[in-house]
Amino acid sequence: MSSFFQYRRLRREVQEDLARAQEAQRRASTSTSEPKEEKTKEEDAGEDESEKLTMVPGVTVSRLEDGDGSVVFEVGWKENDPSNPLSWTLTEKWMAMLTCCALAIPLTMLTSIEGPVQEAFDAHFGVNAMAGSMTTGIFLIGIGVGSLFSGPFSETFGRNAVYFSTMVVVLLFIMAKALAPNYGAALAFRFLCSVFAASPMTVAGGTIGDIWTPMQLPFGLPLVTFAAYAGPILGPVVSAYTPEIGFEWADWISMIIVGVALVFVLLFQPETYSPVLLEWRAKHLRELTGDNRYQASHASAGSLGTRLLINSYRPFTMIWTEPIILVFSFYLILLYFVLFTFLNGYHYIFTRVYDITTSMTFIIWTAMMPGVFVAMALIPYMYNLTKKAAAKAAAQGQPLQPESSISIWSPIVASGFFGYALVCIFTSAYMYIIFVYLQYAASALGFMTFSRYVISGALSPASVKMYEDLGPHWSLTIVAIVSTIMAPVPFILYKYGHRIRAMSRHAQNKA
Q1: From the centroid of its chain, how far is CA 481?
Q2: Which DSSP helix (H) or strand (E) runs through 75?
Q3: Could you report the per-residue pLDDT of 374-407, keeping only the tens digit for each?
C-alpha cells in the first residue's frame, strides 16, 4: 500500500516538473523578441532538444553505446529530490527501519522457535535427537542458499517485491511443515521455508544502504542488527511451553507472527531501491510526454533477463574478485561456530547439569538481552566517534574510511558479554560491507550469509554431539580458543583493510 502511494506521488511530482518546464519554456519563447539567424533543421532540432532537457530537472542527454547511437534522455534525481531515499526526512527513514525490524524479528525467530518442541517432534516422528536437530541445521543451510538469490533479485525488481513475495511463500511453507505427514516432508518444508526466509538477512542490508548516508549508518544499522538477533533469542521464549499443547503450535504461532508482520510491511514499507524508483519516474515521463526516449540508467543497461542474470551471477563472482568479502566471510564463519556451539550448550548444561526444565532453560536465553541493550545504548557515543573521524578525514581532504566502523565496534569489551558481542561484531561487519559496496551491498551480504549459514547448518548437529562426548568444559574451552584467535582480526583490518579493499573489483569506496 505504501509503495502504491509512493508510485502515485512520483507521478504527481513528474506532472508538476513538466508543468513548470512548460511554463518556463513558454516564458522564454515570449520574452525573445530579437530575430533569429537562419539555422539548419538539425541545429534547430538540437536546440529544441537541449532546451527541453534543461527544463526537466534530473534528466540528462546520453547516447546508446550499442546500435545506432541514438539519443536517450537518462532520468536521474533532481537536486534535493524528496523522492530520493537518501533525501528522505529522518521520520521517513526511521519508519523504513521499523518495517525492516518488523521483518527481521519474526523471520529470524524461525531459526530457533523449534528448540523447545524438539523432543516432542522427535517422539512424534520416531527419530533420535541427532536427526531431530536437523530441523535447525537444514533451516540454516536454507537461509544460506536463499541469501544468494534474494539480494540479486532485490537489485532487479526492487526491495519490496522480494519482501512481499517471500513472506507469502514463507507462510505457506510454515503451514505445510505443521501439517507434514512424516519426518522427511517436515524437513523438506522446513528447508523451503528457510530459503524464502533469507530475505531480511541480505535485502535489509541493501535497504539500509539505500536510505542512510555513511555518516548516518551508526544510527540506522544497529537497530536492524538488534532486531535480527533479538529474533533467535526470543524464538525459544515464545515457544517454551508449546510442547504442553502440541509441538505443531510452534508453527501456528510462527504463522500468526509472520502474518502480522506481512500486513504491517504491506501497509507501511516504501520502496527504497533508487534504480527502481527512477524506473517509475521514467515510466511516468514516457506516459505523460509520449516520448519513449526517457529511460532510467538501470533499465537502459539491458533487458530484464540480462539484468537478472548479471545480478544473480554477481555474488558468485565476488568469491574470487572481492578479497574483503572472503576475509569477512571467514571471520563470520568462525563467529557462527562460536555462536551456535554456545547456544546449543544451553540445553545440555541447564537440563543435565543443573536439572532445570526444558521450558525454563529456553526462558534463560533472555539473559543475553541485557548485553544487547548495552550495545544499543552506546550508539550515540559510537556516532560521535564516527563524526569525529569524518571531520578529521575532511580536514585532510580525504573521504571517510570504512575501516573507521571496525575501530568503533571493537570486540575487546564484547568478549565478556555475549549478547553485546553479537550486536557489536555484526554491526561493524555489516556497516563496513554496506559502506564499501553501497548499491551492491545486498549481493555482497548474500555470499557472506550463504557461507556462514551453510557451514553453521552443518556444524549445528555436530555441536550437540560435541557436548555429549567432550562435556561442557572442554566444548566451551574450544569455543574460547577460537574466539581468542578471532580477536585480532578487526585490528588487522583496521590497519590493512584499505589495501584489501583496493583489490576488490565491485567496491564502490576504494579511496
Answers
A1: 31
A2: strand 71-75
A3: 767 776 676 677 677 767 766 777 666 655 554 4
Torsion of CA 302, 57, 86, 431, to 10 degrees: 50
Alpha-carbon distance of 141 to 247, in angstroms, equals 22
| DSSP letters for 248-295 | THHHHHHHHHHHHHHHHHHHHPPP--HHHHHHHHHHHHHHHH--TTEE
Instruction: Show the cell assigned to 505.
Output: 573489483
DSSP line for 402-436: TTHHHHHT-STGGGG-HHHHHHHHHHHHHHHHHHH
Task: Note whether 201 and 445 are within 8 A (CB).
Answer: yes
Closest CA to 5 of 86, 84, 83, 100: 83
Rounded to whole angstroms, the Cα distance separating 208 from 273 reads 10
Alpha carbon distances (Å) from 468 to 130, 346, 347, 358, 473: 11, 13, 11, 17, 11
* 37: enclosing H helix or E strand: none
* Rg value, the chain, Cα: 26
Sign of the CA dihedral with 425 first, then 431, 434, and 437 last: negative
Q: How confident is the model at residue 510 (pLDDT cuts 50, 70, 90)?
A: low
**C-alpha span between 66 and 473 (Å, rounded):** 66
C-alpha to C-alpha distances, 261 to 266, 332, 349, nearest whole angstrom? 9, 28, 34
Q: What is the pLDDT of residues 272-315, one digit of tens each?
A: 999 889 999 999 999 988 888 888 876 555 566 666 676 666 66
How much is the pTM? Answer: 0.75
Q: Quote the longest CA-to-CA distance of the chain.
A: 99
Instruction: Report the pLDDT averaged over residues 498-509.
Output: 68
3-class DSSP state of 114: coil
- Helix 249-268 / helix 159-178 crossing angle, nearest 10 deg: 160
Handedness of CA 438, 502, 153, 333 (dihedral sign): negative
Q: By C-alpha distance, which of 225, 254, 287 is closest to 117?
A: 254
Q: Which residues of 57-74 are buried (b: 16+ CB within 10 A; e: fewer)?
A: ebbeeeeeeeeeeeebbb
Q: Which residue has the cell 565491485?
A: 506
* Alpha-carbon separation of residue 31 from 18, 19, 57, 275 (angstroms): 20, 18, 22, 38
